[in-house]
């Protein structure tokens, strides 16, 4: 269907014969693909004997829709969209092993086995959310990969903010929250040795059209539609996040990234409870080091360094 959709995207009348010839398929095959697009929600007009014209596109994640007007140099090149996968991270990791390049983006309209930090599951019902994974091949030592986790969170927060106008903020290390509730989780996975990083897969799950959550997370989770009060385009959100990813990479190169992360942080300067293995302590989130480590000042004045992989951080006055 992607080839037919690409031909129709300009919104002009395209003859079935022309598409048949250019794609090397029969007119009947063209008609079947047009019918499949209509069943997917695309409004396609049959114009007499002249051909077909695209009138309206639904909010579905398809490669031609994402690529049209993407405006990036590397992020989202190429785009691979699936109707349903167990995990976009798993799919992209296998692609990375097989040689996929920097900037490859995998999306799914439904994800059945998504994972968050510390092995938690992530809900991605059909056509309601964004499940996406971006492949990075950074030329950095493994010790600096934690910085990419922070960068991914900035890219997602900026993308959401640009599309919706919502005050998207980052709960350290990389949960995206709006009005104190979680709207996105981010998970980075990598393949590396002691000297170099082979690849990093940055996965993000963004709640967009979900209007009701399971009781156990209802008080802490939200969606873009709920916060905006109207439907938000998943396609435009993905495009904005990809553009923000390139902007964030540039900030990392220029050394201006940490100041931007702090602007988006919902954790900095706030009281936090740090739940580590074998102990829990409280304090104030004072700063974040360039390696991604959170520095917490306890009531006694002691500075404690907190690694994202080791602990769970909760605000003392709500989720953030």
In words, what does this structure look like?
There is one protein chain. The chain is 30% helix and 31% strand. It is elongated, with a radius of gyration of 22 Å. It folds into 3 domains: 2-56, Orthogonal Bundle (Arc Repressor Mutant, subunit A), CATH 1.10.10.10; 63-264, Bira Bifunctional Protein, Domain 2 (BirA Bifunctional Protein, domain 2, 2-Layer Sandwich); 271-315, SH3 type barrels (Roll), CATH 2.30.30. The relative contact order is 0.12. The strands form 3 sheets. Strands 3, 4, 5, 6, 7, 8, 9 and 10 form an 8-stranded mixed sheet that branches. A 5-stranded antiparallel sheet has the order 14-13-12-11-15, with no helix packed on it. A two-stranded antiparallel sheet has the order 1-2. By secondary structure, it is α+β, with helices and mostly antiparallel strands. It starts with a helix and ends in a 5-residue tail after the last strand.
Q: Are there runs of 5+ residues with pLDDT below 50, and where?
A: none
The CATH homologous superfamily name of the largest domain equals Bira Bifunctional Protein, Domain 2
CATH C-level class of the largest domain: Alpha Beta
The counted number of beta strands is 15
Radius of gyration: 22 Å
State the shape: elongated
Give me the oligomer status: single chain
How far apart the termini lie comes to 43 Å
User: What order do the SSEs take from the amino end to the carboxyl end, as H and E?
Assistant: HHHEEHEHEEEHEEEEHHHEEEEE
Helix content: 25-40%
Number of domains: 3
CATH topology of the largest domain: BirA Bifunctional Protein, domain 2
Query: How is the biggest beta sheet arranged?
Result: 8 strands, mixed
What is the structural class?
Answer: alpha+beta
Mean pLDDT score, rounded? 91
Number of helices: 9
The share of residues in extended strands comes to 25-35%
CATH architecture of the largest domain: 2-Layer Sandwich
């Amino acid at each position: 269907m992607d080839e037919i959709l690409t031909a129709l995207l300009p919104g002009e009348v395209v003859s079935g014969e022309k598409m048949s010839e250019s794609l090397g398929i029969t007119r009947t095959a063209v008609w079947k693909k047009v019918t499949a697009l209509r069943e997917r929600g695309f409004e396609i007009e049959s114009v007499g004997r002249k051909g077909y014209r695209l009138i309206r596109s639904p909010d579905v994640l398809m490669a031609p829709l994402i690529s049209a007007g993407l405006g990036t140099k590397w992020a989202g090149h190429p785009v691979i969209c699936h109707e349903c996968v167990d995990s976009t991270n798993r799919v992209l990791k296998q692609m990375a092993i097989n040689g996929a390049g920097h900037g490859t983006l995998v999306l799914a309209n439904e994800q059945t086995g998504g994972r968050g930090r510390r092995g938690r599951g992530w809900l991605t019902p059909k056509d309601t959310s964004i499940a996406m994974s971006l492949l990075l091949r950074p030329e950095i030592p493994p010790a600096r990969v934690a910085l990419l986790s922070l960068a991914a969170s900035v890219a997602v927060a900026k993308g959401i903010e640009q599309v919706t106008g919502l005050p998207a903020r980052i709960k350290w290390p990389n949960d995206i929250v709006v009005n104190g509730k979680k709207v996105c989780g981010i998970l980075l996975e990598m393949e590396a040795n002691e000297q170099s990083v082979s690849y990093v897969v940055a996965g993000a799950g963004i709640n967009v059209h979900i209007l009701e959550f399971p009781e156990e997370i209802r008080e802490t989770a939200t969606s873009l539609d709920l916060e905006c009060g109207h439907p938000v385009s998943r396609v435009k959100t993905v495009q904005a996040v990809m553009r923000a990813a390139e902007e964030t990479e540039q900030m990392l190169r220029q050394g201006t990234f940490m100041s931007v992360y702090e602007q988006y942080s919902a954790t900095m300067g706030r009281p936090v409870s740090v739940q580590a293995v074998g102990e829990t302590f409280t304090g104030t989130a004072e700063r974040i080091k360039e390696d991604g480590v959170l520095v917490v000042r306890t009531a006694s004045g002691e500075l404690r360094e907190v690694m994202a992989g080791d602990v769970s951080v909760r605000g003392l006055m709500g989720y953030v």
